[in-house]
């Protein structure tokens, strides 16, 4: 049995004022957390249990065991919670659905602990419940989101800068983004040939880890009709096409640039319609994420590529408008857990780390 098959998943609780604790508990009640440990505040978990009308037995770990596998604490029917040292007090008393600095501090602390344990090889993967970017900012966290936090932690762990990319995936479509949390104007200005080539390399490596011998990567253009030969913009000619050519010279199966309004339909794997591509590369955040989310937010999974660890998350946010009502759907979190298990097993089975080849 591989190490990844016996090591647990770590679930970070997300923003304590959002739906993260609720969807974690719903997943636990559905029997999806037998191999998982929640990194979070037990009082916050208990508050969510009361909202859901669940009676939850928690086995609280004050610290991580020195070695794993170990004898599970208590019954496997219990929810295991690792409470990081130094969490702000009174988190369970914070109002649902509101930005609070302590909520941002708590979310960041859980991410820090989970990423450290996973980077040390003491957990199979980490699955992150949603956090709120305003709460992070209010807490003074110098990163806008999970991706940037994990990139910094991983770079410090390996001792050199790391390039990472965001992929949103479901059973029908995998989309990798060249730019993420930037305004549209800044994202367009940030596009360059080296960045697109780097994204193609990271995507290719991810496909190899997933067992694809020659991952087929379609590159979406930036402009309408992929620029129409320069009529509607020349980024495809001067920035995107050179990156594709360089990638193909390295043996990467990249094609395009294709019109962004049709390439996602061509790549979609659906009954009676095998997709033409394994991945689509999109230049900007909404260009790439709208098609995946339109197919169903409940099945979408956010995967961070380029890290020396497996990290997935639901493809939705904190849902402050319904937090504390018990109405949150855990389907995307469950999908994220299943994908984390699969990616961990594939990585271990192929004798590969998650870090791309320099």
Task: Describe the protein's architecture and organization.
This protein has 358 residues and is of the alpha/beta class. 38% of the residues lie in helices and 14% in strands. It contains 12 helices and 12 strands. The chain has a 12-stranded mixed beta sheet, with helices on both faces. α4 packs parallel to α6 and α8 packs across α9. The longest helix is centred in the first third of the chain and has 19 residues. It is globular and about 60 Å long. The two termini are 29 Å apart. The N terminus and C terminus are likely disordered.
Approximate strand percentage = 5-15%
Q: What's the main sheet like?
A: 12 strands, mixed
- What gap, in angstroms, lies between the N and C termini? 29 Å
Given as residue ranges, the uncertain stretches (5+ residues, pLDDT < 50) are: 1-5, 351-358
Helix content: 25-40%
Strand order of the largest sheet: 3-4-2-1-5-12-11-6-7-10-8-9
- What gyration radius follows from the Cα positions, in whole Å? 20 Å
Instruction: Figure out the total of helices.
Output: 12
Which sequence of SSEs, written as H and E, runs from N to C? HEHEHEEHEHHEEHHEHEHEHEEH
Structural class: alpha/beta
């Amino acid at each position: 049995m591989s190490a990844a098959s016996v090591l647990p998943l770590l679930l970070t609780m997300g923003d304590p004022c959002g739906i993260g604790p609720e969807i974690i508990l719903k997943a636990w009640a559905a029997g999806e957390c037998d191999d998982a440990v929640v990194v979070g505040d037990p009082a916050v978990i208990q508050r969510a249990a009361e909202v859901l009308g669940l009676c939850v037995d928690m086995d609280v770990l004050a610290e991580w065991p020195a070695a794993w596998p170990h004898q599970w604490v208590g019954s496997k029917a219990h929810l295991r919670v690792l409470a990081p040292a130094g969490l702000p007090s009174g988190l369970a008393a914070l109002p649902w659905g509101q930005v609070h600095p302590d909520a941002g501090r708590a979310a960041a602390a859980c991410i820090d602990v989970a990423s450290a344990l996973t980077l040390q090889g003491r957990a199979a993967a980490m699955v992150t419940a949603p956090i709120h970017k305003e709460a992070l900012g209010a807490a003074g966290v110098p990163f806008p989101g999970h991706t940037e936090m994990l990139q910094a932690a991983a770079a410090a762990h390996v001792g050199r800068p790391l390039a990472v990319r965001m992929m949103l995936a479901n059973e029908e479509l995998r989309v990798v983004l060249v730019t993420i949390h930037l305004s549209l104007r800044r994202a367009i200005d940030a596009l360059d040939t080296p960045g697109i080539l780097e994204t193609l390399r990271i995507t290719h490596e991810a496909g190899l880890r997933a067992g694809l011998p020659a991952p087929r990567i379609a590159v979406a253009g930036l402009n309408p009709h992929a620029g129409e030969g320069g009529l509607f913009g020349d980024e495809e000619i001067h920035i995107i096409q050179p990156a594709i050519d360089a990638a193909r010279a390295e043996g990467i199966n990249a094609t395009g640039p294709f019109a962004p309004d049709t390439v996602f339909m061509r790549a979609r794997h659906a009954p009676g319609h095998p997709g033409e591509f394994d991945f689509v590369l999109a230049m900007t955040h909404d260009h790439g994420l709208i098609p995946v989310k339109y197919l169903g937010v409940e099945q979408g999974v956010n995967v961070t590529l380029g890290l020396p660890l497996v990290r997935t998350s639901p493809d939705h946010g904190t849902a402050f408008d319904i937090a504390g009502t018990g109405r949150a759907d855990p389907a995307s979190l469950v999908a994220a857990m299943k994908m984390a298990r699969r990616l961990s097993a594939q990585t271990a089975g192929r004798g590969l780390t998650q870090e791309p080849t320099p």
